[in-house]
Specification:
heterotrimer; A mainly alpha; B mainly alpha; C mainly alpha; A: mainly alpha; 5 helices; 9% strand; C: mainly alpha; Helix Hairpins
């Protein structure tokens, strides 16, 4: 799929990073504000889809030499891993906990194990979406 | 609690798991040697219980399985159960030993054989040692299943598959009927425990379900024990390897039905129907089995019909023994003897029939045939096998001094005594019993003689044999030698069984006769004096010998029956008919058209839901509703318009863009309905989906209209309109009726305190319902893997599609 | 509002069912997608609409709308995306292999031999 739409490509260069930055914000903010693994992941994925649409697959592959199937697998492992982690503390599968920590610059922050689980979700969503789009795109 | 007893029952199952590994990893050693240890250990283990049951104790161990339904794996060891457990493990041990020499480790799939055999052994132990009817039923069906697998062991043979299927269909049908009977028993007594049912047996005799329960349970027992007219599966089951025939189809599995009858006698025996049905079917089977056996030419065929006949004999004795329950005590109770005879013959049958089957296997193994027309004169080349055959057959024929003589005498006693029973027309019609029994015994005598003399005497016909016959190796002879030794030992010293095994087993079958501290006294002896039984035996020998010698002259009697009226023919016709009807019926609705299937689903959806909605009077519109603003009205109008456009457009592009519009409109509704997470997700998903659709559909054809005529579309429209209306009705009434308090209040309180999150939706996703989310992303990953596979990994042979 | 939304869900179901029953594979896929939209709307409606603030504790509102159906729908949206993509590729591959997207012509024979 060759594309050389100059306007789209130029716009993509700017917008891409805004979307990516926003998606990361959405992801981390998910525990308290709208957002989270699904939304963050989908947003990141949509940024990459935009890149795919504006440029071609080869180019995206050069920029991001990542096998998205592995990203999916890594996400699944992370999610299952946080679940299994509960066993180390003798609590049921997928029990989550949280606590507050004080950091030098950032001040007091809440850290929850649920966030680790959400990382898994985030990675799976990105991996799945891009695997699908990439495979279909490459076939044509 | 899990006890050693439970472990003993499941031990064969556990061992079965390791059999394939042993077979693969240690191909040098015959797998049977490993398997042999299981029945050997279990046999010794169960022997320990002999002193317990001899002193009239029972052992019960409970292990909860489905406590909410009252289903517990209750292992109950009493005299009857222990007798069977010893038979199963003892004969099992000998059969495994025999199979080591019978089945070649180079040619046969031993892993399958021993896995199935152990599976059977465990299931059979489960049947006889479970106190819970449902557990018993489960194990019962596993025995049918393992029998099926073992009969079809040489599955490349057409006849093996036919025999396996036949036995499966008949025994599983009976098993299912038995389950119905068990449920009826539960309905009457409120418990699945056999002991508790027996305790309340007196209360249920007049219950409406009493007779149906009895009939359905008996159907299960009769099919399993190959009673006329369900016996037709047993001769075909002889396609199994001989060790299996000796074990399952003569010594143990077919006796499961007898076990069930004996076990439930205390429940049902108060009714005359039980006595008539059990004894009647038994005596008919006894006659028909022995009569048909004479006609057979295959050694195993003779033995199969002989087994059918002997099972009938045991059952008829149990039926007559039921008469004993009508008396309150043991004094002057003639009919106790019948039960004693049944148990004694059960053991005897296992010994002589087991040895005879092994004998038939040896003959087959060493000469290459089991056809008595081709055999003959083997006495000189196979002297040990001949001896085994003589002892086994003479015992079966009821000749002294073997154990078969003793039990046959006791059988005659029982049959003669029943004519004096003063109820249920026994004193008039009962006279049929001794007559039929006597005639059947003559035929038993004839086929027993055929087994020995047609095979081992006369002229040897080497030209009809494929191999040169010679005596079997010692290992193969060992098991039948042990069994015939038992035939002789039990013949001379029957009372070693009387105190240890028979009396406790009788206490299980006839518990109501025993008062506090009482016990049965069984004393079996040879010489009764010049009684009617002895004259009957002499008559059997005399007439039997005459008929055997003149067999050639009257054998034509078997051709009188037209072949189209035989039970086998009826069975074959039924199976063929059922197959035809079911394939027609299936073909009528399984059209392999996706549209038809969807129509079924949607029609069912509409009919079922609308019916329930109005039948239960669930429809209502009085719920509190939120106000509608102009903005929302406009959105709704957009939604409806777009939906209609998508429905009726011809253009592919319009349909896809319309779908996108629908998605975005719904996202806006999510915003209105205070669902920010949903709105965000929906917006992004819709964007990605549209991109995906466009990518894909670029290559797909236009939606063509000429395929679908007006009538087709009108039909679809009616169905879809009905579906839409149903959904609307459900939505309105669901909103209007709140059956119980919503759990919504939990989340605002708990999500910050327990999960440290302020976004409740996200907290639910990652914390409260994290398992759902985990599986959801798994589904996503599977979908992606599927897509990747479909595109990238094409089938090598494209024409296969 | 709930009645209006129930009707909208019904309209979506109707449109989806109509599409699914047609013979063209594309329309079937679009139909399944529309049906899942309908299901989402129906779920949300059943729980009651506009009963409180968005389910975000940071707003410190008096009442919140029920977060549970929202979580369920969120899951459903993502799943239906996966399923729709799968169907789409299935249709696409079937078309590539057989040259038709007419389900009547894609019918198998269902024979075992």
């Amino acid at each position: 799929m060759k594309s050389n739409d100059v306007i789209l490509q130029t716009a993509t260069k700017f917008v891409l990073f805004i979307i990516l930055a926003f998606s990361v914000y959405m992801f981390f903010n998910g525990h308290h504000e709208p957002g989270g693994g699904f939304i963050g992941g989908l947003m990141t994925a949509s940024a990459l889809v935009l890149l795919l649409l504006a440029y071609d697959i080869e180019m995206v592959r050069n920029i991001l030499p990542v096998d998205f199937k592995l990203v999916t697998a890594a996400g699944l492992l992370t999610a299952v891993g946080t679940g299994l982690g509960s066993f180390l503390f003798g609590v049921p599968f997928l029990s989550q906990t949280f606590d507050y920590f004080t950091f030098p610059v950032l001040g007091e922050l809440e850290l929850a194990t649920a966030l680790l689980f959400d990382v898994g979700v985030y990675l799976v969503v990105i991996g799945v979406t891009l695997t699908i789009i990439q495979t279909i795109g490459e076939d044509q | 609690m899990l006890t050693a007893l439970h472990i003993a029952i499941v031990a064969p199952f556990i061992a079965a798991v390791f059999v394939p590994f042993l077979y693969k990893k240690l191909p040098k050693i015959h797998t049977g040697w490993f398997v042999l240890t299981i029945p050997a250990i279990l046999f010794v283990y169960f022997l320990q219980y002999l002193p317990v049951t001899s002193s009239k104790q029972t052992v019960t161990a409970v292990w909860d399985w489905i406590p909410s339904l009252g289903i517990h794996f209750t292992a109950h060891v009493d005299g009857l159960g222990l007798l069977f457990a010893l038979l199963i493990t003892g004969i099992g041990m000998l059969v495994v030993l025999y199979s080591i020499y019978y089945l070649s480790k180079e040619r046969e799939a031993l892993n399958n054989f021993y896995t199935f055999l152990l599976m059977f052994m465990g299931a059979m132990l489960g049947v006889v040692l479970s106190d819970n009817l449902i557990v018993l039923y489960t194990f019962w069906e596993i025995t049918s299943l393992s029998s099926f697998l073992l009969i079809s062991y040489w599955y490349e043979r057409e006849k093996s598959r036919y025999g396996a299927l036949k036995s499966m269909l008949i025994t599983v049908m009976g098993g299912f009927s038995m389950l119905v009977g068990f449920v009826m028993l539960y309905a009457m007594t409120g418990t699945f425990s056999i002991q508790e049912i027996i305790a309340s047996a007196g209360d249920i005799t007049s219950h409406d379900l009493f007779i149906p329960a009895m009939l359905t349970i008996l159907l299960g027992a009769f099919t399993k024990s190959a009673q006329f007219p369900f016996h037709i599966w047993l001769p075909d089951a002889m396609e199994a390897p001989t060790p299996v025939s000796a074990y399952l189809h003569s010594a143990t599995m077919v006796k499961a039905g007898i076990y069930l009858v004996a076990r439930l006698s205390p429940v049902f025996a108060f009714s005359g129907e039980w006595m008539w049905i059990v004894a009647g079917f038994g005596i008919v089977t006894l006659f028909w089995g022995s009569f048909s056996a004479v006609q057979q030419t295959d050694l195993k065929g003779i033995l199969a019909f002989s087994t059918v006949s002997q099972l009938g004999m045991i059952l008829s004795m149990l039926g007559v023994g039921a008469a004993a329950i009508h008396f309150d005590s043991m004094d002057d109770n003639l009919y106790i003897g019948a039960t004693t005879a049944a148990i004694f013959h059960l053991i005897n049958h296992a010994t002589f029939k087991g040895s005879l089957f092994m004998m038939a296997g040896i003959v087959d193994h060493e000469t290459g045939t089991r056809d008595i027309r081709r055999l003959g004169g083997l006495m000189t080349v196979m002297p040990i096998t001949f001896t085994i055959a003589v002892i086994g057959s003479f015992s079966m024929a009821g000749l002294p001094p073997f154990n078969g003589f003793l039990s046959k005498e006791m059988f005659f006693t029982a049959m003669v005594d029943i004519t004096s029973f003063q109820a249920f027309n026994m004193d008039s019609f009962g006279v049929l019993f001794p007559v039929v029994a006597w005639v059947a015994s003559i035929f038993t005598f004839i086929y027993s003689m055929m087994l020995v003399f047609k095979t081992f005497t006369g002229k040897m016909q080497p030209e009809k044999l494929d191999v040169k016959p010679h005596e079997a190796p010692f290992g193969m002879l060992l098991s039948p030698i042990i069994l015939v030794s038992l035939v002789i030992v039990f013949g001379f010293f029957p009372n070693i069984l009387a105190y240890t095994v028979i009396e406790p087993a009788m206490a299980s079958i006839l518990p109501s006769l025993l008062g506090e501290g009482e016990q049965f006294y069984v004393d079996i002896y040879f010489w009764h004096g010049w009684t009617i039984e002895l004259y009957m035996t002499m008559g059997v020998i005399g007439i039997g010998t005459l008929l055997y010698l003149s067999l050639r002259k009257w054998v034509a009697v078997y051709d009188v029956f037209p072949s189209s009226l035989t039970l086998n023919h009826i069975y074959d016709q039924t199976v063929a008919g059922v197959e035809k009807v079911s394939s027609q019926l299936t073909g009528a609705y399984m059209t392999s058209s996706i549209r038809h299937y969807l129509l079924y689903i949607f029609s069912f959806f509409v009919v079922a839901l609308v019916f329930v909605l109005f039948n239960k009077d669930a429809f209502s519109v009085d719920g509190a509703t939120a106000p509608i603003s102009v903005y929302e009205g406009v959105l709704a109008a957009v939604l409806v318009t777009t939906a209609l456009v998508v429905m009726f457009t011809r253009s592919r592009l319009k349909a896809i863009i319309g779908l996108g519009v629908l998605g975005y409109t719904i996202a806006l509704f999510f915003v209105i309905f205070r669902a920010p997470d949903l709105a965000l997700t929906q917006l992004i998903i819709e964007t990605v989906s549209v991109a995906l659709f466009l990518l894909c559909f670029y290559h797909l054809p236009q939606i063509s209209r000429k395929l679908e005529n007006m009538r087709f579309r009108a039909g679809n429209f009616i169905v879809s309109l009905a579906v839409g209306l149903t959904v609307t009705l459900i939505g309105i009434s669901a909103n209007s009726s709140r059956l119980f308090e919503s759990i919504a209040g939990f989340f605002p309180e708990a999500s910050y305190d327990e999960a440290g999150g302020k976004n409740m939706v996200n907290v639910i996703l990652v914390d409260f319902r994290g398992f759902d989310t985990l599986l959801e992303i798994l589904v996503l990953a599977i979908a992606a893997a599927g897509i990747f596979t479909m595109i990238k990994l094409r089938l090598a042979g494209r024409n296969d599609l | 509002m709930e009645i209006l939304m129930s009707i909208l869900a019904g309209v979506l179901f109707m449109a989806g069912t109509y599409m699914v029953l047609s013979r063209s594979f594309i329309r079937i896929i679009i139909g399944t997608s529309i049906i899942s939209h309908g299901a989402h709307v129906l779920l949300l409606t059943m729980a009651g609409l506009k009963t409180g603030a968005p389910p975000l504790l940071g707003l410190e509102a008096g009442t919140y709308s029920d977060p549970l159906p929202q979580a369920l729908i969120l899951t459903a949206i993502v799943i239906s995306f996966g399923v729709t993509s799968f169907f789409m590729v299935l249709g696409y591959r079937a078309y590539k292999e057989t040259g038709t997207d007419d389900t009547d012509r894609l019918r198998g024979t269902d024979s075992y031999d």
